[in-house]
Amino acid sequence: MSQIYYVSDHHFFHELALKRSRSEYFNNTNEMNEEIIKRHNNKVDDDDHVYILGDVIICEEKDLEEKLKMTVGRLKGHLHLILGNHDYKFRDNPIFLNYFETVEESKLIRDHNKWVQLCHYPILLWYRKNKGAYHVFGHMHDDHCTKEFYIIKGEKNIFNSCVEINNFEPCTLDELIINNENFYKKH
User: Fold this and answer.
1) Of 64, 108, 138, 142, which sits 20 to 30 A from 178 (CA to CA)?
2) What DSSP state is assigned to residue 107?
């Protein structure tokens, strides 16, 4: 039976992401890219669905096709992209779009009989929030020094899918819940 996974903010080839929050894990972007791909493919099967909640690749448009082949093109599973701030410049590029089964700004899905609202950005009100629905987001990485972090920390059923707090790999809903609980306990 296929599985649903969530992940965000790969930032393939992005030097600034490496310097900001990943230098303790990786020596350079090539090492970062390869490790993220390896962890993804060790976990995800070809028939699984992976919701990437934005910011998958950072590069110039002239390098896009080559860099997508080197990274996203090697990821297993049915890839669904929720656009992040770094993805918008490619949203009309057919080369970019062909790497994903779906590309949307936000999406509401069912995962094990739970409603899950997907968006790159954290939102405070989502469909059926007051009835136990979940919200999965990206964008914040492992930033814990903002007022938004403390607002989100106080909310229920809202989960950060950024690679930094999820072992640089896609996660199931149950794994996201555990990883987020552990992350918030530390901060």
Assistant:
1) 108
2) E
